[in-house]
Amino acid sequence: MSDSENQEAGAADSPAEGFAGILAERREKLDRLRAAGVDPFPHSFPQREEIASVLDAHQGLEAGAETDSVHRIAGRIAGRRGHGKAAFIDLRDATGQIQIHAKADVLGDQYGLLEDLDLGDFIGIEGRAIVTRRGQLSIEATTWQVLTKALRPPPDKFHGLEDTETRYRRRELDLIANEDSREVFRVRARTVSEVRRWLDDHGFFEVETPVLQPLYGGALARPFVTHHNALDRQLYLRIATELYLKRCVVGGIDKVYELGKDFRNEGISMKHNPEFTMLEWYEAYADYNDTAAGLEDLVSGVAARVLGKAEIERYGQTISLAAPWHRVTLRDAILEHSGIDIDELTDRDALSNALGNEDETAGWGKLVDTVFSKSVEPKLVEPTFILDYPEELSPFAKQHRDKPGKVERWEAFIGGVEIANSFTELNDPDEQRRRFEQQAAEIDRGDEEAQPFDESFIEALEQGMPPTGGVGLGIDRLVMMLTGAASLREVVLFPAMRD
RNA sequence: GCCCCCUUAGCUCAGUUGGUUAGAGCUGCAGGCUUUUAACCUGUGAGUCCUGGGUUCGAAUCCCAGAGGGGGCACCA
User: Fold this and answer.
1) Nucleotide nearest A166, from its CA to each C1'
2) Does any strand B atom come closer than 7 Å to the Cβ of A221?
3) What is the pLDDT of residue A196?
4) CA A131, CA A134: separation in Å to the nearest integer?
5) Is the minimum distance from the CB of A160 to strand B below 7 Å?
6) pLDDT averaged over consecutive 10-residue blocks of chain A (499 residues)?
7) Considering Cα of A472, then A473, then A474, then A476, what sign does the dihedral take?
8) Are the CB atoms for A445 and A416 separated by under 8 Å?
9) What pLDDT does A15 receive?
10) Is the CB of residue A458 less than 8 Å from the CB of residue A433?
11) How far is the C-alpha of A150 from the C-alpha of A95, rounded, in Å?
């Protein structure tokens, strides 16, 4: 990846070769601009119009039409076609792309400036809107200026940038070269914005809780560990916002949410990045039935606003996101897809035998989770809530009101991917203490993902938390669904990579 | 952590059974062209064939090891 730029002082007659030569050419043009009194990095370009608004203003004009409408626009040179004493330039800003027609007889002395421009440079231009005889809306430049000289070349103008590694490591090149990629991140931005709008419209209160935590909690995962020098103590990057948000509910913030990064020290895959964006919201006086209705409404509503319709395409099929989604209990889902009844096989060894499992350390809950992940999850393409999980996998969920050993919890799946998780929250402090003790036993048995005991959280529950429903929604995964992306890396600007 | 696949010019890609000096298009450079849009035409430059070993008279090509990337397994949201 290292392009060492070897400059030979004053060696104008022995040009550098290869990529170094390309860089040297650009620097020579930079020098020529400066020698001609041009500032290649001016401070601003005021009163410019966005290209999209120029395009909108002149839709439907006939080929050959001319207007008196003068526009001032700026952008990056995306393409260039020279014709001797005239040239066409494709200029692009964040809103769109438009053609510039530059003619020597109109620009006069300024026409020569074209010589020192390259693909990738930023320029500002002013001129009137015309339509070429091929019907292409264009700006006939009357004046222009360099706004930034690009010292490195852009990727291939036609093929774009295909190399996956470069696309992720140098996302700026991907964004320059690939419209599809730009669109993915526009959808992501709109999604986040519409999710916030939904929460705000429903009266939720946005908060920010600590990322650096003395004790991690709220999920079963391995944390990143760091150190605070002044306090000389170990801190963890949060794996969830759950426990702090519940303390907000205890404090009287009945409807609360946080949208931000969580960090989990686990493997990287098409569905996992070590840092990822999570939304958690909590609503007092609600249970997991209410939160399920909330998620259906949020996801279908956000999709309708972002995509214009509450449906997505995936695996060659159209998937409706409209409510109501399928609702199946975990037990029924596993029974249907694997023939195993977890309500019958309540003994760890019996279930292990039925599954042909060889992992001696896996407990009953773990086995249930494994068979579910393998035989059920990939089949949950249409939006589906899986309901009522075993207690041992859910240390913060309240016992089911009429199913012993189960908790009131659902996970929501779309396209075979889990996008959200929710419980009727456990608010009995003594029961919470018992669950922590259960988790402590798991830690002693060597489970690195078990939940550490959090005394201050117990104290908060002792203060009294009203009945509450809570949801965690994976924003990256939601964006995957809305964009059709096959991999999480396609919707994360700078995914985790090796050094 | 384990298994499989990939890595050739700045970009996108060819490269035959192991055979001379590794090619094309775009980009770059020089020139031509006042309505093109992957503009076109002429000329031209550009390589650590991922890295390090090995086999061979000879390696981009075969073998071994490593790196990076992709996919799968395992784990997780």
Assistant:
1) B69
2) yes
3) 98
4) 8
5) yes
6) 30 58 92 92 97 95 94 96 94 96 92 90 96 95 95 89 92 93 95 98 97 90 91 93 97 97 89 94 98 97 97 91 96 91 88 77 82 90 94 91 94 94 96 91 78 93 98 96 94 90
7) negative
8) no
9) 52
10) yes
11) 20
Which nucleotide comes closest to A131 if you measure CA to C1'?
Answer: B35
CB of A401 under 7 A from strand B? no
- Whole-angstrom Cα distance, residue A78 to residue A446? 56
- Residue A85, CB, less than 7 Å from strand B? yes
The predicted structure's pLDDT at residue A207: 97
User: In this structure, are strands A275-284 and A255-263 parallel, antiparallel, or unpaired?
Assistant: antiparallel
Residues forming beta bridges with residue A259, ordered by sequence position? A279
Q: A374 beta carbon < 7 A from strand B?
A: yes
- In angstroms, the CA A175 to CA A188 distance is 14
pTM value?
0.92
CA of A312 to C1' of B9 (A): 41
Of A42, A306, A32, the residue nearest A185 (C-alpha): A306
**Alpha-carbon distance A81 to A176, whole Å?**
19
What residues form DSSP beta bridges with A498? none
Which of chain B's bases lie under 7 Å from a protein CB? 1, 9-13, 25-29, 32-40, 45-48, 67-77
Decide: A439 and A221 in contact? Cβ < 8 Å.
Answer: no
CA A443 to C1' B51 (Å) is 43
Total Cβ atoms within 10 A of residue A490:
22
Which residue type occupies A306? V
- The pLDDT assigned to A266 comes to 85
Could you tell me the CA-to-CA distances from A388 to A71, A189, A281, A314 in Å, in that order? 61, 33, 20, 27
What is the residue whose two structure tokens read 């919890």? A409
Instruction: Please give the pLDDT value at position A311.
Output: 95
